[in-house]
Amino acid sequence: MGTPTVLTNGTIVTGFAELDNCALYIDENGLIGDIFNMNRLEQKQFPENTLRIDVQNAYIIPGMIDSHIHGIGGYGTEDCSPDSILGMSERLADYGVSAFLPTVYTNLPEDMMKAEQAIVKAMGHEKGAKIMGINLEGPFISPKRINAQNPEGVHAVDTDLFEQLVKAGQGHVVCMTVAPELKNMRELALLARRENIVLLAGHTDATYENMMEGIQCGILHTTHFYNAMSPLHHRNPGCVGAVLIHEEMQCEIICDGVHVHPELVKLLLREKPVSNIVMVTDSLKPTKQKAGPFFANGIRAELSDQGVWVSEKDPTLFLGSALTLQKAVKNVVSWGIPLSNAVQMTSTNPARIYSFHNMGMLIPDYTADVTVLDKAFQLKGLFVNGTLIRDRFD
Length: 394
Description:
Layout: E1 5-13, E2 18-26, E3 32-37, E4 51-54, E5 59-62, E6 64-69, E7 71-72, E8 75-76, H1 82-93, E9 97-104, H2 109-122, E10 130-131, E11 134-137, H3 159-168, E12 173-178, H4 185-194, E13 198-201, H5 208-216, E14 221-222, H6 238-245, E15 251-254, H7 262-271, E16 277-280, E17 294-296, E18 299-304, E19 307-310, E20 318-320, H8 325-334, H9 339-353, E21 370-373, E22 379-384, E23 387-391
Parallel strand pairs: 1-4, 1-5, 6-9, 9-10, 9-11, 11-12, 12-13, 13-14, 15-16
Antiparallel strand pairs: 1-2, 2-3, 5-21, 7-8, 17-18, 18-19, 19-20, 21-22, 22-23
Helix pairs in contact: 1-2, 2-3, 5-6, 8-9
């Protein structure tokens, strides 16, 4: 049993509605007990040991879920170490993330399986953000759109290898990035559906017709939209066009202002229901690491506010993200996107798409994963399963 808590004087963003001058009650079972206007506070009765915290008009939002992340704080999935995965858990909590999917790079099969095994061993031992399962970024991707993945790990569709990867995850593989245009992809997609694994189109050179075939067999999500995929062309809409044209397609988006121009993020929100968009960081191991040397998937790198850059051969070559979801929310609000939309994209939508039950919204009887951000979007507090694990309240 936990300590019941009332957060008062907050702006509560439930996942859809934004409610001013409200309070949120977390019960002793770690669930959302009630949400009510401050005018009703004195009418409420709580257990004697209830902790009261005045959040001083801060935002109270559902715990953020990072569903695509390789590393943070010098810890990464490529370390193939349970301790490193747990290090990611603790660092993510520092930035208001309550749950995440450690993401495994395309690599040699044995290395991918070692990373999976490390994630499984870490599950249940977290002191920060909860590990919800495994995100496999490959290995069945296009050799034309490799980007930061290991080219030696890129593999033709192989259902035996798929089953080995699923087995290594011991039932915890949640999603996998694939290139829909690859031969025998339909067979793999049907296997994935039977395993309840969500497939994302990504690192793909698919034509529009390839994407339509992918949709028909259940590939309805997309990895880091606009990036590492066939672009929109007036004679071939490609992967980008398919996602924009078909509302039912879901997509990730990296809102650091570097991977995707802010105006294209706003275009996406005009063309697509916000319910089908998920903000992710896709952040790499050097993100928020205090001192070097910096490495990302074995590559020596440089870290800046803009991201992670290759340093060995070409110091101008962009390698990947150094974003946090906390900063992503601040970014999109500064671009004119409503906070309620940002919360849907960081919390509500990933919980629904990946079937994380009773998560992603602030409504009674849902798990009390709660992030509190001040009006400058700095972290004030984080509750995971109703327990206050980051306390920066004044």
